[in-house]
Amino acid sequence: MQLFYNRGVSLLRNLKVTLEMIKWEHSIFALPFALCGAMLAAGGWPAWRQIAWIVLAMVSARSAAMAFNRLADATIDAANPRTATRALPAGHLTAAFVSAFVLISCSIFVIAAWQLNRMTLMLSPVALAVILLYSYTKRFTRWSHLVLGFALGIAPAAAWIAVRGHLDPRILLLTAAVMFWVAGFDVMYACQDYDYDRTHELHSLPRYLGIRNALILARLFHLIMLGLLITLVFTFGLGKLALIGVMAVAALLLYEHTLVQHDDLTRLNAAFFTMNGVISIVFFAFIAADQLLHL
Among 198, 223, 242, 292, which residue's Cβ finds the most Cβ atoms within 10 Å? Predict the structure, then answer.
């Protein structure tokens, strides 16, 4: 009996450490955009059953992707002073446990896709391939930031398919917007590893452009995002609330960029973790209000 108790305690401890490692609460980054896609597809609230399975699919997919990323980068993280204290390189978790977590998360994702409709089930392996294989792109291309952006950007298109059972090209505007949004803040985040990437032959835009120019490119990516969101509003014939939502996102992005300067990255975590969560929630709130109130 004591043996089973000890194993249960160990399992719960490992699970807690894993959730902290992957920062599962940051699923909030992409989830509101996925819900935007679902609401645009339904013209309002989708069925609660659809919402529940979409949320489960999003959280499980991100959990699988983040845990797989930690596995793929374990050796890199161990050599980087900034990341050497992460759970895997520090020895708080085993690769076997994290691998099992990835497999279970992927299985939950496929089950959620199966519960939505036939098309989401058929496309689930493609989605998993995109979000998992991203982890290796920094080894051969400086544009891995855009690949990460695409991995999160497919969320609203996937949610549209989950509701409608087919893809409408118009929702790809939101996919592209999320892609450039994520790529922009990932470029900003990568600036803190500028020296490490140079010395260890890892590819990133800050490594090739320098921190100052990389931050300029991040601003350009976010300007493209805003242009795509404005196009989305008019393409779907959305109302004033949606347009105000885009303006709110623009104001938040402007503030985010004031937090990070080429010679001062001390507030990078606030810009990355706090502001991006706020941006996604604010945009969803205005889109939801627009769809429900029709103003």
Answer: 242
Structure tokens at 190: 């990568």
Tokens linked to 226: 């805003």
Q: Which residues contact 61 (CB under 8 A, 6 or more apart)?
A: 105, 109, 127, 128, 131
Record the pTM: 0.91
Contact 267, 259 (CB under 8 A): yes
DSSP code, position 93: S
CA 99-119-179 angle, to 5 degrees, is 65
Q: How many helices (H) and strands (E) does the chain have?
A: 14, 0
Amino acid at 290: D
pLDDT (tens digit, 9 = 90+) per residue, 49-90?
Answer: 999 999 999 999 999 999 999 998 888 888 888 888 888 888
Instruction: Supply φ then ψ for residue 261, to 5 degrees.
Output: -120, 160
How far apart, in whole angstroms, are the C-alpha atoms of residue 23 and residue 21? 6
Q: Tell me the pLDDT tens digit for each residue of 180-228.
A: 999 998 999 888 888 888 887 788 899 899 999 999 999 999 999 999 9
Architecture field, domain 2-293: Orthogonal Bundle (1.10)
Question: Closest Cα to residue 73, out of 134, 142, 151, 150?
Answer: 134
Q: Which two tokens stand for residue 216?
A: 């300029």
Tokens of 162: 């989950």
Residue ranges per structural domain of the chain: 2-293
